[in-house]
Each structure stands twice: as structure tokens, then as C-alpha cells.
Amino acid sequence: MLTRVDLRGEDGTPETLLSRPVLTDTAVADTVHEVITEVRQRGDAALYDLTERFDGVRLANLVIPPDAGVRALSSLPSDLREALVVAEAAVRRHHEEELGTARETFDRGLRIRTLPRPMARAGCYVPGGRAAYPSTVIMTAVVARVAGVDQVVVCVPPGEGGRVAEVTLAATEVAGVDMVHPVGGAQAIAAMAYGTETVRKVDVIVGPGNAYVAQAKQQVAGTVGVPSAFAGPSEVVVVADGTSPAEFTATDLVAQMEHGPGGISWLVTWDVAVADAVDVALDRVLEDAPRGAEIAGTLASSGHCVLVDDEQQALAVVDAIAPEHLQLMVAAPETLAERVRNAGAVFLGPWTPTSIGDYVAGPSHVLPTAGTARFAGALTVADFTKDINLVTADPDALRRLGPHVEALALAEGLDAHAESIRVRRQHG
Q1: Which one in 74, 119, 356, 426 has a CA-CA gap of 20 to 30 Å to 344?
Q2: Which of 95, 259, 304, 325 is catalytic?
Q3: What domains are defined for the chain?
Q4: pTM for the full model?
Q5: Do 209 and 232 touch, CB atoms closer than 8 A?
């Protein structure tokens, strides 16, 4: 079932020996550029036309009624309402621990105060259309709220009849979302970045999406804040040594492939018996899965089993892949986790599937994909804030530091910079 890659005895670096799916190509980038241009030029009219073109829906309105979330929440079964509340509380509690406070340093007349300031407006992209992802509402909007963002907006692709799933609308109520637009794809990203008659421009855009959404965020970055991580198709790497049931590993590999094509689902092991057992277990899991045929197709193109010599080589493979989700299904996961450099989130031991992190653990499930875990991490309150530095110098500090400023300014040919120091020293 899984395509085997045998690295045992290989001396080359994993980066040169492993392949991963190409998530974007020129055609995707060109299409996204055209969509962004159309939204910038035509505003709301483009959103109506593009939604009809890509989602097969002619919208009647670009704004969901403000009371829709309340009505949706009241319509849910009690267990689902409770699950949303539990998830919101877990995410809020975790991210409240990330909140920064003002910092101050003082050195001989030079005072520096650093003040964290939240952004005014945040746009959260939530995948939708054929499926509903209320968890992504919680994992983005709640983090923004904790950060102190004034207004939180959600864009979500419309489903049949232009409707947004009730459970998604309910999640917007639980998360404290201010406005919901039934718009998806690259056109939603463009609308939030540049604004239209109805969709107001935001300061930062977060949330996962397909290759078109991820590419759109890359193209608007700089016009609007976009966290550095590439939040695209889902990824999981499971490192297993045979101490956990093969069924656990198989279900976890399948779980991330439910999100559709484009991601990766890899098993890394130094035990061939584990690889064989997981293949057998995968067959059983897929037989019972409602979307088994679709998932099997995704696994055929993106499912791999990497055979390695030992733990050290397994870690080298993990760091080369830099996966969104990493599961350590080994005898001593805590010890191994200490040696991991590149991963969005790490799940330790047989009783910690990635689904815990997807819903209720607390840290945002918006994680770096496509190898961006090499330089980026999970969504945090820091993605919705920026620091403002307040600098105050007294005459003593200016006399002490001024000559150094003058020397550096003159070296750079910036005479006016130097003069701004000299004129003050003369009056000192």
C-alpha cells in the first residue's frame, strides 16, 4: 500500500534521496494572479462571478446575517455544542499563556520600552464547500481574539445553495467572530487583502487551504500580513518501532489523508516487520472507511514507507521532510522528541493521535506545511501582534552614545544623521 523507500546503508543526505509532492506550479500561480487582479479591479462583482465559476453558486449576498451563528448554535445537538465549547476553552487557555507584556530596559540614561500591540482586523480563512471545518474557526479566530484583535472576519467557501454549514456558523458564534463572508478560494484571500465594497481590508490573513489559497496568500504577502508558514495540504510522518499496534499507525496515516490530495503520509521505521504490519492494517482500515477509495488514491501518490538503519537516520529523515504533524510511536518518545529540529507539532506515544491536536489539545492546528517547519511554527498570538519600541534618551545618554552615532553616520555618508547628534551636543 505504501510506496517503500529504502535508505538503509545510504550515505547521502535525506534531502537528496526523498521526494515530496509539488504543491504549486506555474498554472496555479497564473490562475491565482488572474483571480487577484479581477478582484482588485471589479470588487464585489468579481466575487459574485468567481464564486459562481469555481463553486457553482450564485450568491445572493456576500455577508452572512449577524444572527446566523446564534441560530446555528442553538440548532446543534448538545454533544456537538459541548465539543465546540470545550475546544474553544482549550485553545483560549493555551494561547492566553502566550500573551506578551510590556518590557523595559534602562542603561545610563537610555530607556527602551517595548509595547505589544494587536492588529485591528484579522481575516481567518476556513476551508469549506463540500466539507465543514468548525475546528479551523476555533483554531484561528480564538487565537486572534486572545491576541486582542478588534475585529475578526471569516471567509468560508459556500456549499450547496450558497449556504455555510450550520456547524461552521455555530463555531463562529462560539469563537466570537464579527463577520462571515461566504466566499472561498483565492478570491477570498484577494478580497481580505485589498478590500471590496463589502469585504473590508484586513491587516493579517491566517488559516489553511488548498494550493490555490496558499498561493494566493503568498502573492498578497506584503500588502497584508501573512505568517511565514505555508499552511497547505495536510501532512503526517509517523516514526514507529513496533511498540504500538499497527492499527494505530494505519488509522493515523489515513486520518490526515482525509483532507484530500497534495499532502504527505509517511511511515518511517527501522523494522521491516512494522512496515509489513502497517500495510496489512491499512487494507483493513480502508475497507471500512467511508471515503476509502478516495483516500487509497491519495496514499498511492503520497503515501511512503521509509526504511532506515536506526533512530538517528529516522530523525534525519524527519528533519529533511519537516512535516506538519509528527507522531513518535516509539518506546521512548520523550527522549526522541528532544532531538527533533523540524516539525510543526509533535505527538508523543500511542495514546496521542494527531486528531487530539486537530481539535482539543489547545495549540492551534494551523501548522507549517510543505517543508516550512524548517523556519516557521504553529499559529500563535504573535501572528496577530507587533511590537512598538519607545526610545527615550537623556542628555547623558546622548553625550555617551552620540560620538558612535556620528562615526557610523559619516561612514555611511549620511551627514544629516551626524548633524542631528552634533547640534544637540552643542546645546548640551
Answers
A1: 119
A2: 325
A3: 3-23+232-362 (3.40.50.1980), 26-101+117-228 (3.40.50.1980), 395-426 (no CATH)
A4: 0.91
A5: yes
